[in-house]
Amino acid sequence: MNTFTITSQKGGVGKTTLAINLAHAFARDGKRTLLIDSDPQGSVGLSLTRQARHLTGFHDYLKEEDLTASGIIVPTRLETLGLVTCGRRGDAAPGGELRPRVGRFLSEVTALEYEICIIDTATGLSGVTAEILNISTNVVIPQQAEPLGMRSLPKLLKSLTSVRRTNPGLHAPGAVLTMLNRDLPESRDSAADLRRLLPPEMVMRTEIPRDDIFVKASARGLPVGELQEGGEALAIFDQLRAELEKRMTPAKPSVKQTSV
Ligand SMILES: Nc1ncnc2c1ncn2[C@@H]1O[C@H](COP(=O)(O)OP(=O)(O)OP(=O)(O)O)[C@@H](O)[C@H]1O
Ligand SMILES: [Mg+2]
User: How confident is the model at residue 115 (pLDDT cuts 50, 70, 90)?
Assistant: First the structure.
């Protein structure tokens, strides 16, 4: 199974939007996909199902030994897309027990024969996010195409270097430029700066434009592709999905768990 952890040092850069729409793109392409909300704010769940706050989810699993991954996966309108909400009980405290529990969750999901797992995270690389990164195969970093957005980049790269010490297999297919406004020189310049600062293999070619359709989609609790006027945005996420597929680490054969 390939895991994509969506993370950033800065808030409001489009992590959740990227996670939802990328998961939707993989699922529409026929891949068995699981979208996990590991952000205690619970934005993914709230966006896709209004009952999210009442559902048992990821942080509950981290705290309660007797929960199973299959018991907390919620079906969605797409047969190939499953959802795990953040849960009812808020943030699981970081500690010695957390890492094996996160590992257990992902091996249960692998045994359920999911091919792709997209994990939305809270801002910053500490706590539960650090544990997720320690066993992820890929990390994707939304980078807002604005001058302020670029300031967090050096800190993020430094943190990723330290994560790689414990997880040398963590692959960074690249930063994804989000909220790009081609009509605004400051936004265009920021995008150009990022491409100048990082080698081409570290910045995805696909760019996500600033478009009100993303705000409309999250207000209605849908991925953009589900809106009638969402065709263009859908094509962008399909392109991003195809680009990531080319760049991602080859998935290891899934190992079936015989005992839980
Ligand atoms: N490409 C875009 N164009 C316009 N608005 C966008 C775009 N992407 C996201 N937004 C909007 O920007 C806001 C922040 O996006 P989002 O919630 O995805 O960011 P985030 O990084 O997950 O935030 P947080 O740090 O709070 O978790 C939301 O209102 C969302 O609808
Ligand atoms: Mg978010």
Answer: very high
Ligand 2 centroid, distance to 110 Cα (angstroms): 25
Confidence band for 5, pLDDT divided at 50, 70 and 90: very high
DSSP, collapsed to helix, strand or coil, labels residue 33 as: strand
Whether residue 257 is contained in a domain is answered as no
From ligand 1's centre to the CA of 166, what distance in Å? 30
Specify the pTM. Answer: 0.92
Please check whether residue 258 lies inside any domain of the structure. no
Domain membership flag for residue 115: yes
Beta-carbon contacts of residue 173 (< 8 Å; ≥ 6 apart):
138, 140, 204, 243, 244, 247, 248
Write out residues with Cβ below 6 Å of ligand 1. 11-17, 39, 43, 123, 178-179, 208, 210-211, 214-215, 218
What is the count of structural domains for the chain?
A: 1
